[in-house]
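During the reporting period the student researcher (J.K.) took over the structure-prediction task from the postdoctoral fellow and processed the backlog of single-chain submissions. One of the processed entries is reproduced below for the supervisory committee.
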Amino acid sequence: MRKDWCECKLEDLLDYIQPTKYIVDSTKYSDQYKTPVLTPGKSFIIGYTNETDGIFSELPVIIFDDFTTATQFVNFKFKVKSSAMKILQKTSDLVNIKYAYYFMQTIRQNTDTHKRYWISIFSQLPIKLAPLPEQRAIVAKIEQLFSELDNGIANLKAVKEKLEIYRQAVLKKAFEGELTKEWRERQKDLPTAEELLEQIKLEREKFYQKQLDEWKEKVKEWEATGKEGKKPSKKQKIDLTTTDIFNFNEYCPPNWRTCQIADILNDLTDYHANGSYEKLKENVKLYDEPDFAIMIRATNFEKYDFKKDLKYINKHAYNFLSKSKLFGGEILIGKIGNAGHVYLMPILNKKASLAMNLFALRINYINSKFIYYQLLSYSQKNEIKTYICPG
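J.K. obtained the following structure tokens:
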């Protein structure tokens, strides 16, 4: 400690006033009234009163919540909400009350015990006291730096908004072919869009035939066991369509073309594809503790952390949810609350299944990230929005 500083207690710098005669009589507040009613907590000004008696005017002061130790610096006339606080004034003109206030913000006190804290603890805490001119200089520097921090936060918010605009500009250029224009010019044997779609069509036919053969085997097993239980359901074939539903062709390079998601989609599924509500309720239970598989929900993506707030299912439930297992790389689209939000399923080192608030799109013939980023672009977001909020 510097030689021209001294150590004292907070009670040497601050004296308290009981708030009893400044408590508001009526809680019928209105923004049209003039006198603010205060509480030391985050809400601070909880309303305005038209009462004219019992208005505190010996300013400035610190209001201190006696039970939570929350504080507020006040330099305007006021009334208070309750008696569960102390009104703190400086004890002499050698004290800068803001100096004491900012010092109090550095104190971390456990308030689990229900008791009044000013007299029993806070008033007895030591504080290093500088000469008055230096107190003023310290306060001025604190407020300068706090102002710069606030401006920094505002600037960061503005930058974040600009970054979102820039991200959309990058996505727009990417799916107009601008980002790969020079790369394409160096290529000699690129397939045409029509050739790619034809190749996808053939691959899908093979995949569907494989699913059909698997279904026939399951039906044989079902018949061999006396047709016990429900007959295995046949996988529906996704109809191919190449209708241009978006007006993108005018922006596309010559060897690009517009198609529907259905043209490249391998599978579309969700939680309810596994059975009726009653069967799902009977066979699927969620657990907070780690179990056989993770249940993937929209909240896992919104929080950007797959290690927190996870829900789990056991082996029986995972096998029962055979039509909504996730392996990584699927495009997920929200359908409840987060309707239309698009996510990319990461590859995890644990088994996973889809919860009820998402659809899963499986695209095995094209890089799924390519489709994912396209769905994040402004034009695609707007297209999705027209189906969620028509008109």
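The committee noted the following: The radius of gyration is 33 Å.
J.K. will present the remaining backlog at the next meeting.
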